[in-house]
Specification:
The protein is 72% helix and 0% strand. By secondary structure, it is mostly helical.
Length: 85
Amino acid sequence: ESKYGMPMPEEFEELLAIDEEGDQYFHALTPGKQRTLLNIIGKPKSSDVRLKKAIVVNKHLKTNQGKIDFKQLNQDFKDYNQQFR
């Protein structure tokens, strides 16, 4: 059990450990928004997919200075997938 009320995906934990700006934005979010993002990242069974989602979420937080636009985040996931096909 983590301090977030749900498991922290390893991929996201490692990413935040090396990206101070992303870490600050993530930890400035409300606990509910943190859990929502952790759920989005941790849901896929594949480690590769979890890593991709972690990268997109981290970039989204930094681009939007810690604000989450879920409609834009979904578009960011689609754009990332198309970019790396």
